[in-house]
Amino acid sequence: MLNHLDFRLGAGMRAPQAILTIILTIALLTAALAADAQQAGKVHRIGFLRYLRCPDNPGSEYLRKGLRELGYVEGRNIIIECRESPGKAGRLPDLAAELVRRNVDVLVTEGTPASLAAKQTTSALPIVMVYVGDPVASGLVANLARPGGNLTGLTVLAPEIIRKDLELLKEVAPQISRVSVWMDATNPGQTLPDEEMGAAARLLGIRPQRINLRTATDLDRTFAETLRRRAEALLVYPLPITLSDVRKIAEFAVKNRLPTVTIHPPFAREGLLMSYSASIPDQYRRAATYVDRILKGAKPADLPVEQPTTFELIVNMKTAKELGLTIPSAVLTRADEIIQ
Length: 340
Fold this sequence. Notes:
This protein is of the alpha/beta class. It has 2 domains: 44-156 and 279-309, Rossmann fold (3-Layer(aba) Sandwich), CATH 3.40.50.2300; 158-278 and 312-339, Rossmann fold. Helix content is 44%, strand content 19%. The strands form 2 sheets. Strands 7-6-8-9-10-11-12 form a 7-stranded mixed β-sheet, sandwiched between helices. The protein has a 5-stranded parallel β-sheet with strand order 2-1-3-4-5, with helices on both faces. It is elongated and about 90 Å long. The termini are far apart. Residues 1-12 and 30-39 have low confidence and may be disordered.
């Protein structure tokens, strides 16, 4: 037997050495397979921080769907923890810190306030931002191509979208000039693009009337101010209010014959006339790919910030009928969703 082993393993290697080599090789292979199995069986923890309400926005469901398409199953190999602070942006840093203490692997942040709070809270944890108006002007990243630091993700090109929303208002109601703009003045993602809205408004013959609306408690004051200024239409930014509050806004607008447009699709589905924005499902599907790449070892600093490629126009025909408006066929043919 010994001579047989000497023949097969070579004259320079004795049987004990050969056996030891085989044992070490098997051990290394076993360890590698065990490591792969452990990685495959790891449960990743994803933190989700947002300013708007978690139950009233489909973003979290779209994120889950995007992750499922990439092989992540909630409760099996991924856990998502959501924290929100509607109307109380000052709480966002505490909520971000709470998620960091939960040892999440990646922090997904929706909107500018949540993204800023996360960036100020941690410089080590990877952050994927989504639905952010202008991340460069907001100071979230150095530039889109090379974000640097621990934060990357997606922008929605807010200034361009706001211009398009104003154009839509003029298409459905050419006679309007005074447009009440309802926004959260504490949100840089809204104030920055709003500053750039002036030139587009002048070209369209529109005079924006800005009103600060932070929480549902501001609604009655906002209604009264809008009427006092004799507004002829409404432009509504994403606001930290409930969908039942949006229905109140829709009722107010119909009662006072005010066409409405928003950049937040759920608001149109709850009764506002139109919505034009970057596609929320597409934003979160792409955010899921960022999360996947980071979990597999990519660094946020090496992942360029992406701009939207898919937009959606929603027209609520039920609201149009209540307003007595005829929506031009040119608008309807461009609509991605028509609510009857």
